Amino acid sequence: MVNRSLKKIYAILIYLFLYAPIIILVVFSFNASKSRGTWSGFTLKWYLELFRDRQIMKSLYYTMLVAILSSLIATIIGTAAAISIHKMKNFKKTIIMNLTYLPVVNPDIVTGLSLMILFIFTRFPLGFISLLLAHITFNIPYVILSVLPKLKQLDKHLYEAALDLGATPWYAYKKVILPEIMPGIITGLLLAFTLSVDDFVISFFTTGSGVSTLSITIYSMARRGINPKINALSTLLFLTVLLLLIIVNMRMSGESTKKEREI
Amino acid sequence: MKKKWLSYPYIIWMLFFILIPLILVFFYSITIRTDEGLAFTLKQYKRFLEPIYIKVFIRSVYLALISTVLCLLLGYPMAMILAGRDFKKKNIMVLLFVIPMWMNFLLRTYAWMTLLERRGLINTFLSFIGLPSLNLLYTQEAVVLGMVYNFLPFMVLPIYSVLSKIDRQLIEAAEDLGANSFTIFRKIIFPLSLPGVTSGITMVFLPAVTTFVISRLLGGGQFTLIGNLIEQQFLYVGDWNFGSAISMIMMIVILLSMGVMSRYDKEHEGGGLW
Predict the structure, then answer these.
(1) Pick among B16, B18, B24, B159 to test the A interface (most A CBs inside 10 A)
(2) Distance from the Cα of residue A170 to its chain's centroid
(3) What is the DSSP letter of B117?
(4) Rounded distance, CA B256 to CA B262, Å?
(5) One pLDDT digit (tens) per residue for chain A, 263 residues
(6) CA quadruple A206, A211, A216, A221: dihedral positive or negative?
(7) Residues of chain A positioned with their CB less than 8 A from the CB of B128
(8) CA dist B146 to B69, B105, B238, Å?
(9) Residues 132-151, chain A: which have Cβ within 8 Å of B?
């Protein structure tokens, strides 16, 4: 019993450590005074200022646009590549898989600056397109790594059966293989989207003037010190994440109970 | 059926955006622009051996090591609690652990700025109870704190997933044979959790040793880490050759340590004798 309450206290302390900074950030986003130490009344003015801040709104737009485009393009290229890699023989497969792992294990800062060197070396203007290309580049490996396991689980006779029944190869892929590996593709897409939204280091090196993502804007604001607008922004982002996770969790538990009922 | 061409866009993409950029970094690190054009040199690598840069390197490794050890010490018991059977709502506990990870990394770091700041909450509290205020922000400890805070889930989750897969019967068998809980931990739980520990160590150490954001925001630019050095060379000093050489050194160190770690992992998985 003593053991259990000790564990409880430890867990509470760790959760406190994880959540205290976030909760304080949220609480102080409603603080009227700009100084953080004292509470001087409830206000929503930081939220109003946040929505009036052109720079923040613009970076939110770019963050979303880059995340949507890069995750979609990476998913298409990555899924196609995964299907083909799955069929490859040992030697070739090893080489390509090593190439795939390279950006995953390489430090972000090296990936970011090597891309910056490439763009400047080839006189490619740094801006939205270079940012998008960089995001696609670091997203593709994650899509491949999410799709490949699904392909491995796949019964290879399924495809042959479809061909025997007269399907063309393309039709068989569309109607048999793709639906089977769909969960992996969706996972890859979501992973790519999240990584893209969350990325700072690679974006920091590959973007040009005028185009900045939310992470870059937060960094340049935070470097100058505390800004209550960031608190307001954090609160909104934290609530969004919380809401999304709750929805996903509810859907997942809903599905599992449905499956249990079917069984 | 051959669908070879399906991978061509990817292969071309990765050649162009991963391989060629890295070759360019390597190229910049071994050349120097002279009056007669480009010349081969290893000067950049030699320059890194100067005391000021070696100091930066040692500081980066040192701070990352301290953070990794702290994460392991704080995280292992937490992983055991999450994997254990003491609490009912375990799924929610794990989810609660993951949620902060979903918040932007910069905001998590920024949150500590508001806490540690000179007129921040901790100092206000200290002066409220009559203690002198402390210099908390822009210290080495603040950098370590930021690393531990940001990377703790990377340590806990791999250990948790290994621990929750351990066969309960092994532990029960040991109990039946008279082992006490400390012996069970030492002889069964800990050895079996080692793969999780190694991947936790890698997942904390690598981002910690390469970061330049945490040291900039919580260290205030006073504690230059190797990541800051690279950033400076590329964005402010404009010395691409030296910046590339540092990046190459960092990359090699990291790939080597990854290799060592994965080898260590395999020995444990494949051997099974010890």
Answers:
(1) B18
(2) 31
(3) S
(4) 10
(5) 568 888 889 999 999 999 988 888 888 888 887 766 677 788 888 899 889 989 899 999 999 999 999 999 999 999 999 999 988 888 888 888 888 888 888 889 999 999 999 999 999 999 999 999 999 999 999 999 999 999 988 888 888 898 899 888 888 888 888 898 998 999 899 889 988 988 999 999 999 888 999 999 989 888 887 788 888 888 888 888 888 878 877 776 666 655 555 54
(6) positive
(7) none
(8) 14, 10, 29
(9) 133-134, 136-137, 140, 144
- The ipTM value here is 0.85
Residue B273: which pLDDT band, with cuts at 50, 70 and 90? Answer: very low
B102 vs B87: CA distance, rounded Å = 24
Return d(Cα B166, Cα B90) in angstroms, integer: 16
The answer for residues whose C-beta is within 8 angstroms of residue A212's C-beta and 6 or more apart is A55, A58, A59, A62, A220
**Distance between B207 CA and the closest CA of chain A, angstroms:** 7
Q: Is A53 on the interface with B (CB under 8 A)?
A: no
A87 touches chain B (CB under 8 A): yes
Are the CB atoms for B161 and B194 separated by under 8 Å? no
Question: In Å, how far are A112, B118, B122, B133 from B125, measured between CA atoms?
Answer: 41, 11, 5, 9
Q: Which tokens hold the place of B191? A: 């050895």
3-state SS, residue A42: strand
Class of domain B51-271: mainly alpha
Q: CA-to-CA distance for A174 and B18, rounded, in angstroms? A: 30
Task: State the DSSP code for B193.
Answer: H
Q: What's the CA gap between A69 and B236, in Å, rounded? A: 31
Residue that is written with structure tokens 């998590």 in the block: B108
Neighbouring-strand partners of residue B38? B33
Position of tokens 């609160």? A235
Summarised one tens digit per residue, pLDDT across range B189-240 is: 999 999 899 989 988 999 999 999 999 989 887 888 999 999 999 989 989 9
Q: Quick check: A30 contacting B, CB < 8 Å?
A: no
Q: Where are the domains of chain B?
A: 1-41, 51-271
Q: pLDDT tens across A223-236, in order? A: 887 788 888 888 88
Identify whether the C-beta of residue A60 lies closer than 8 Å to the C-beta of residue A214: yes
Structural domains of chain A ordered from first start = 54-225 (1.10.3720.10)
